[in-house]
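re: that chain from earlier
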Amino acid sequence: MARRTESTPLTLLPALKSHLWFAGCPPAFQQALVERSRLWHIGPGEILFSRGEAQDSLCCVVAGALKLGSINPKDGSHHLTMYVEPYHWFGEISMLDGLPRSQDAIADTDSTVMVVSGPLLTEWLAEHPENWRDLARLACAKLRLILTAIEDNASLSIEQQVARRLLFSATNFGQSTNPSVRRRVRLPQEYLARMLGVSRQTINKSLRALERERVLALHYAEIEIVDMAALVTKAGAIYPGLPYPMPGPDADITG
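^ sequence. v structure.
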């Protein structure tokens, strides 16, 4: 069955600019991305693209949430690398090197994704080669996040890793132009466990400890940040090489 798609309105530009990478792109490139895209509407569990597929697009979540990772062919379980919400961009690696997709992208809820045509974007970049650097900036930001996660996994306790993942999720991985932090984070415990490579029971134990300390409040499929200063303290000093600053203990909490 064909996916439901529609043209992307230029009225979406202000919302897209809530992401620091997109906001830092030249206006002409911003408009080119929107004009060469369509909005794809996909349901829970629907695959946007699969690992090994030929690349043909750059993507941005506009509504809902997607799981990025890989599916285990033996049991169908999903190794989760990132849980992405509006207005997170992904798919830039294959755009840069022309190789097949390295991950699966699966909708977790009813979602809308802005899908920029790879051939049309490549045609634009051939005429405006200076904008390849903007795509490289996006890829480098993602690489720095991944390197930080690898270092955290090797050197930090599960409790500290959980605190950091919650900070990343509440701030769109530090890439939101909004200085405030979301109070409620949709991040089921099972997803946290998959991202950190531990059991759900281990994650539940860490979250319950933070709840007893009144740092967090746990809800169904959601985590509420109650004490931002305490969460930042639990997370500890984060690698200063990240492209965007993470929130401090006095950050505003909204929503």
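The chain has a mean pLDDT of 88.
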